[in-house]
Design a protein that fits this description.
homodimer, about 220 residues, 9 helices, DNA-binding
Chain lengths: ~220, ~220
DNA sequence: GTCTATATCAAGATAGAC
DNA sequence: GTCTATCTTGATATAGAC
């Protein structure tokens, strides 16, 4: 959260503005999560941050830009989390499944996370104008996940349909779907169900591949 | 009222009202899906249905009631679909996985389905006032799914953590998560990935259970 | 750079005509 | 039972003061 605020020295103009911007983004996260894009008012966001409407419009062109900037910041965090997991995994420090499990728990702890995720998804699905911009932000964390699954698949007998992309999609779906169910009804989704599911998944892929060991047979022109 | 039966052409008062109601609900599904609850206007819904605002308010108390009635109708369809799958499965006519796969494809064909699902989820998560009502509507289809997974699990060696409830949650998560990814980027999620994922899941559960065949061993005091 | 005041508009809901 | 007209509110965005 907030780290270095030098209470002694006066903040420079640029520092003050950056601080205002940060506070506005934090307030926006809270209000957009609770009310949604259309339901949230810029006035409430500004007041929650401790500023006026004017301050908000001096930092963001309009409501949509604020929302999209929040989306960028939101994804920066996801990228950081994914990178951390990937690093731990590649160092061999931690099992990949455990690391992914920690991401889910972290996301679950932040009660706004699932709400914001849902709101961003709807916004992207409804607004083709900004869809490309938003989709581009997802490529980096998704690539990290595919790398992780690719590594895991290399260690077992996977059938040809179990590509890193396909398995990454399945894991992302599990993450998303379990997080959402847990948000509404924690009793239905225990904290370690995600971990179990991922292990079942890989065990099943391995078992399926072992049953059809033709997998390295054919290689027409290019692997994909 | 005047129960005049005119089987020829003219609709009775009640029939006309029922027809208006149905058209309004269909329009509401479209507009709520495209704009969301807060973003949709009752005027646009009424006009899309071919009526005026007054007609809408004569059929529904307010915007929220219209939304919740739509949710009920939406779930009636889901219950019907689930029941159909369950019936086919229990008759032995169709493999359970194939049947579930068909549900996903059907949902994917209706471009409004995922949007509405997302909107309903957000509304339930944000409005504790109506959460119980909405959650109650989910119990029936969820129970059907648990019954389906319970039957499937009975035919293989499942570890103790693979309860019908837990596995049903995983399958629901796969359904939800894959549907949402496919909605934004169909290239990432092939039409049969859901089927593959479910098969991998059950194969993995079976393999895991076979590896730890102590499953009926110990029962200290209370199952959890 | 932020605040106050305000122009402008769209939306939910109601009342009374037909 | 549905329509037209209207009341009322609350929101985005801007302009000018400090």
């Amino acid at each position: 959260m907030d780290a270095e605020t030098t209470p002694r020295r006066r903040l420079s103009r640029a520092e003050a503005k950056a601080r205002t911007r940060k506070l506005l983004l934090e307030a926006a996260a809270q209000i957009f999560a609770r009310k949604g894009f259309a339901g949230a008012s810029v006035e409430e966001i500004a007041e929650t941050a401790g500023f006026s409407i004017g301050a908000l419009y001096s930092n963001f062109a309009n409501k949509e830009e604020l929302f999209l900037e929040l989306y960028s910041a939101f994804n920066q965090d996801r990228i950081a989390a994914a990178a951390e997991v990937l690093a731990e995994y590649e160092k061999g420090t931690e099992d990949g499944v455990n690391a992914m499990g920690r991401i889910l728990v972290d996301a679950d702890t932040d009660s706004d996370f699932a709400l914001l995720l849902g709101e961003f998804w709807l916004y992207a699905a409804r607004n083709p104008r900004v869809y490309d911009t938003m989709a581009a932000r997802l490529r980096e964390p998704r690539a990290a996940l595919e790398r992780l699954t690719g590594n895991a698949l290399a260690e077992l007998k996977a059938p040809p349909e179990a590509t890193p992309q396909a398995v990454a999609a399945v894991i992302a779906a599990l993450f998303d779907g379990l997080l959402r169910q847990r948000r509404l009804n924690p009793g239905l989704v225990s904290a370690d169900l995600f971990g179990h599911a991922v292990r079942w998944l890989f065990a099943g892929i391995d078992a399926t591949g072992a049953r059809t060991p033709v997998k390295t047979a054919r290689r027409s022109k290019k692997a994909n």
